[in-house]
Amino acid sequence: MAAVGEITYTGLPREEVERRYRLVREAAARDGLDAVIACGNEYTGFEGAVTYLSGFNIVHRYAYVLLPVEGEPAIVFPSEARYVGEHGTTWIEEQVFVDRPGEWLADRVRGKRVGVYGLDYIMTVRDYRALEGACELVGWDVGFDHARMVKSELELASVRESVRINTEGFWVFLEAFAPGKTEREILAPCEQWFVSQGCGRWTMDMVLDGPDGSALPEFKIAGTRRIEPTDLVLPSLEVAGPGGHWVEVSRAICPGEPSDDTKRMMEAYEEYYAAAQEALRTGSTAHDAHRAVSKGFHERGYRLGHVTGHSIGMTMIEFPKIGEGDETELEAGMVLSMHPHAISQDGQACLYMQDTWLVTDEGGVPLAGLPMRIFDGSEKR
What we know:
Elements: H1 14-30, E1 35-41, H2 48-54, E2 62-68, E3 74-78, E4 94-98, H3 101-109, E5 113-117, H4 125-132, E6 136-139, H5 141-147, H6 153-176, H7 183-196, E7 203-210, E8 232-240, E9 246-248, H8 260-279, H9 286-299, E10 303-304, E11 309-311, E12 318-322, E13 335-338, E14 341-343, E15 350-352, E16 355-359, E17 364-366
Parallel strand pairs: 1-5, 3-4, 5-6
Antiparallel strand pairs: 1-2, 2-3, 7-8, 8-9, 10-14, 11-12, 11-13, 13-16, 14-15, 16-17
């Protein structure tokens, strides 16, 4: 790969870039593909596949990386987005600006079998139409994510830096927290902290809250609602640090008395936290891990809003999911976001607390180091 220099703009050694290409190419060849197209756009958390393969951070619009099983990669931009990103930061030598990226790609992959990351959610309709008749398109989100699910030591350093930033962000949120303040007033210092640490646009922060010691299950953008002394507040803090690896860390805050439902959900959370340390180990399956960590919630009659967890990396949500029926075998070096979304039968109470875990041979390691508890707002770090 002559196009790859010894050190990229992010400080990636040549060996790291070659490792990523090797993993994706080996998986593509195994699945009978001739090439891979990775799609990314500016929707928060959906740009990561392009960044993973190119080093380019999408600021606006979208981009594609074409990685042949044999041959050099190319990165393709719509020409109207010529200056909406630092194009010199990519290590890919062939940088293409065209009115219709799909037409350019179609010329390069005509007659081939092409795996596409983002075929259902990211690729634009106009580019899909251009490619549809030129080659065999294969949705390849799972294959791509499985190829990158075990993180290198360099990636794990980036993950840990993101966790450091996000964990501190929770403490910033907690310090700003006080009844009488609006959701916006409490979250604003948190966002300021994330930007100061180099997260830039890589933040997706929301809140769940509600009265009488219970939070309603709907995620929402922080608004003008004022927090009451009896409210339960759940900040959902999801960020990627300067290295581009997403993490999720948060805890619930209740200055008053949690509701009976909340207390019972907290009991299940304590059981989940202990079970995850046993279940998130090499050789366990995603299905088995899901069963282990969700057991306490189901036994108490609570339903889960979505999967209990998922692989996480340079894309916010990656495969495998930690959920029912996924028999993917866990491997040391995988990073998982775990966040059982416990919801009462009447839909009026929930508990949703996030942790980023490292899979090891000995078991799961929670990286944030936050105690598994409901905070009351008086705690100091």
